[in-house]
Structure prediction request, 249 residues.
Amino acid sequence: MLSTDILIRTMKRLLFIFTLLFCSYVVKAQENAQAYNQVIKTLGIPKNKIDKDLYTEKVLPYDTHKLVMVFPIRKGNDENEATFDLYVVVYDFLQQRITQSYKGIDEYYSDAVELQELSIDTAKFILTEGIRAFGIRAFYKNGSKVNPYSEETFSLFLPQGNSIKKVLNQYTLSTSSGEWSYDDCEKIWSDENQSMFMMDSEKTNGYFNIKNKQTFIGKGTDKDCNEGIMQKNTKTVFLKYNGKEYKEE
Prediction:
């Protein structure tokens, strides 16, 4: 009898914990949905034009009562080709209001090389003491198996006052391309370019430079279809703030 009572109490505790966790999830989901609808209404964003597949949001890990929201607005009726305006918003959960916002016209373009994903990057982009930015990565890819191509670009956004300033525009972080043959291995090759960002200790016009280590890798196959690296090299470039935005030297 005692073991049955213990079992019942244990089950009740587990049910209570599950209910608490579930309710917490629902509250958060409703909170984000409320923010989403409030932002749309406040900024007059055309709800039916928001690309739901590309929309993204992220709580700032270094300022957890703030939510970054990215609204891509699709323009044009062609399924295979589109231009996107972009709203970037910082929303404060505690104040229940927009604290900063940005609107970009014709920010992204998608055609045969399709814009497939946007993501928010909250790495330590500390531009100067006490000032931190966040990034938005855009991923593009074509559908070709013979000539595959993909690209990733990066934009850097700095919240300032009531607005958000874009300080780096669509910088190419990586590309991958190739040519594939079904009957001749010597015609199979691929090229990859990759960037690795680091904030430098030197400043230009008050903001730290961005140190970018670029790596290029070229691969190919011989007539026996053995794959190997044909070429590999690295170089370091710097992006410096010119008073308006970061530019590569």
Q: What stands out?
A: The radius of gyration is 24 Å.
